[in-house]
Amino acid sequence: MKCHKCRGSLEKTKTNKVFEDNILVENISAYRCKGCGELLFDEVSYNKTLKAIKSVKRKIPQKVLSKIKMVMA
Ligand SMILES: [Zn+2]
User: Fold this and answer.
1) In this predicted model, what pLDDT tens digit does every residue of 8-23 receive, in sequence order?
2) Quick check: 28 and 19 in contact, CB under 8 A?
3) Which domains, ranges and CATH numbers included, belong to the chain?
4) How far is the CA of 35 from the centre of ligand 1 (A)?
């Protein structure tokens, strides 16, 4: 896998990302370009993250959906 911007090589990393404005997910597997610093998510861990968010949201009533912090395994 190469960076889509500069074709630089990518290194594995972990990152945090806010989804839907109020769901902070920590420790998501991702790749960072050694050239330009662009952050890319691999599809598998990204889908896993979205699934985890969905299941968390199902468990929590909409009205207390203020701020959620999740940590991926
Ligand atoms: Zn790059």
Assistant:
1) 999 999 999 999 888 9
2) no
3) 10-71 (3.10.20)
4) 5
